[in-house]
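User: Sequence recovery, please. Input:
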């Protein structure tokens, strides 16, 4: 799914098998390959961000950086504020891996809706540097955060 302010890509998830008896021993999720068409920009930084249960990261805007987010442990909801002020909610989890591309100058946040720490893999087209002032806080004062509280 794609629109002018963000895109969503369902990721490929494949079972992996034991080399001796071929039982399923886990899985492999493809996040990025240099030949995939999901990426218009080449990542320059890769990091993992952890989010405590019930906590929100953001909302904020990256002025220069486009980020690609995938929850690799737990479950998070990404909230993206479109230019028209409408909010879009996208789930990404370890069971249903989804990559969300948030371009620069688009406000977003994410909330951990699981009972444990969630981890989000992030690929970015601009590498972060301390004190680069590339990010600014945003306000989602008309968003209903209470629906995620149990």
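Assistant: Recovered sequence (150 residues):
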């Amino acid at each position: 799914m794609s629109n002018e302010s963000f895109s969503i890509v369902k990721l490929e998830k494949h079972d992996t098998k034991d080399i001796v008896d071929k039982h399923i021993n886990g899985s492999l999720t493809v996040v990025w390959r240099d030949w995939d068409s999901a990426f218009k920009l080449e990542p320059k930084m890769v990091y993992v961000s952890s989010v405590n249960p019930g906590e929100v990261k953001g909302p904020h805007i990256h002025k220069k950086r486009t980020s690609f987010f995938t929850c690799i442990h737990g479950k998070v909801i990404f909230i993206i504020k479109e230019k028209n002020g409408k909010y879009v909610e996208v789930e990404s989890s370890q069971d249903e891996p989804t990559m969300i591309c948030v371009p620069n100058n688009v406000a977003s946040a994410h909330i951990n809706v699981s009972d444990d720490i969630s981890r989000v893999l992030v690929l970015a087209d601009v590498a972060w540097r301390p004190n680069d002032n590339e990010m600014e806080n945003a306000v989602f004062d008309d968003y209903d955060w209470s629906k995620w509280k149990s």
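Residues 7-11+42-141 form a domain with the Jelly Rolls fold (CATH 2.60.120.10).
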